Amino acid sequence: MYLVKTPEFIQKLFPHFIWKITTQEKVVYLTFDDGPIPESLGYRSIRTI
User: Fold this and answer.
1) Predicted structure pTM score
2) Is residue 2 situated within a structural domain?
3) Residues with Cβ < 8 Å from 36, sequence gap 6 or more?
């Protein structure tokens, strides 16, 4: 398992973001990134998968 914690200086640069929510229950949130839009990379000749 690969856990990532955002560095504290980044959190201070964006204080209006929610970085941590304290809760009594165990919860896992999954997010999915569908990647870049292929058309936006075409002019750079970057191959998308």
Assistant:
1) 0.43
2) no
3) 48
